[in-house]
Amino acid sequence: MKIPIIIDCDPGHDDALMLMLAFGSGKFDIKAVTTSAGNQTQEKTLNNALKILTLIGANVPVFRGAEKPLFRNLIIADYVHGETGLDGPALPKPAFEAQALSAVEGIAAILRSSEEKITIVPTGPLTNIATFLLAYPHLKDKIERISLMGGGIFRGNMTPLAEFNIFADPEAAHLVFKSGIPITMCGLDVTHKALVFQKDIDLLRSIGNNTGKAAADLMDFFSIFYRTNRTELDGGAALHDPCAIAWLIEPEMFTSKPCFVDVEINGTLTTGTTVVDFYDVTGKEPNVEVVYDIDRERYIKMLYNAICQLP
Ligand code: RIB
Ligand code: CA
Question: What is the per-residue pLDDT for 249?
Fold first, then answer.
């Protein structure tokens, strides 16, 4: 039985590999892809999503999301993902266009007409998801779970305590974490163990298909930032976003714990922090399955097997 999902992403190198895993795994009934502004502008992340879906032969509805966060100015991560947001590989021109509806309207239309509950997989800032929840609160019950990449237990990559996807739109994240929808959070604690090394890149390239070559070229570029700025990862690049999909496929590949989590939106030093009550010191009811460890070898094998199924 395939898991019905909607993916909300900001491609982005690791978002691209997340899409390859989602489609190549064959485990999902992917209703739509929506795009968020984050790694690059909305214009570029939308175009990038269409290019990757064209590359992997996945013709699903794509909906354009918000141009900027709910209240704050847009910040982008071009220092990691480059001018296009997917620097590195030569990618095909999009073979199809985005739908006319916005991301929020697209999500609403799909949930409204679906007999079954749908899992949402955000791997960028949470602006689209928060806006949907504000506009369509009565459709919240059609969401099975939110499996997201974002946050961290005691670490950040934009500030000492805030991770990019949360920091980019903390008010949106605060609203999503308060929603009462079951959440799985794949934060930096697990994604900095979900590392891709040169041997893994070479393995993906050895598959010999177009998707394997593109994945390897993407990881070659993505690794530049990590080998320069995250030397403690010993040459590995943190393959963040596919974790949110891999957990849905094989949760036993991971280690996680139910915790109460809230998002700081007013802190001078801490805005955008996912405040994780890991030791249950508040006694508050856990609202998030916090993922913090991974079997890296199994993760790479899962990715390899998925890409083998693609063109
Ligand atoms: O902090 C890492 C996250 O920010 C990943 O989702 C990456 O793609 C960027 O969106
Ligand atoms: Ca992302």
Answer: 98
94 DSSP assignment = P
Q: Give the C-alpha separation, 283 to 134, whole Å.
A: 28
Whether the full predicted model's pTM is greater than 0.90, yes or no, is yes
Question: What pLDDT does residue 138 have?
Answer: 97
Mutate to test the pocket of ligand 1, among 41, 164, 166, 169 (most ligand atoms within 8 A of CB): 164
Q: Directed axis angle between helix 198-206 and helix 296-308, to 10°? A: 20
CA atoms within 13 A on the CB side of 125: 33
- Distance separating alpha carbons of residues 182 and 55, to the nearest angstrom: 33
Q: What is the DSSP letter of 82?
A: T
Tell me the CA distances in angstroms from 191 to 7, 65, 156, 157, 178, one per residue in order. 18, 25, 12, 12, 23
pLDDT at residue 59, rounded to an integer: 86
* pLDDT for the residue 263: 98
Q: Report mean pLDDT in 10-residue bins for the chain, 311 residues.
A: 98 98 98 98 98 97 98 97 97 98 98 98 99 98 98 96 98 98 98 98 98 98 97 97 99 98 97 98 98 98 98 98
Structural domain count, the chain = 1
Please give, one letter per residue, the 3-state secondary structure of 111-170: HHHCCCCEEEEECCCCHHHHHHHHHCHHHHHHEEEEEEECCCCCCCCCCCCECHHHHHCH
CATH number at residue 252: 3.90.245.10
Q: In which element (H, E) is residue 5 found?
A: strand 3-9
Ligand 1 centroid, distance to 123 Cα (angstroms): 7
Q: How far is the CA of 241 from the centre of ligand 1 (A)?
A: 7
Helix segments in the chain, DSSP class H: 13-25, 42-55, 78-81, 103-113, 127-135, 164-168, 170-177, 188-191, 198-206, 210-229, 242-249, 296-308
Boundaries of domain holding 14: 3-308
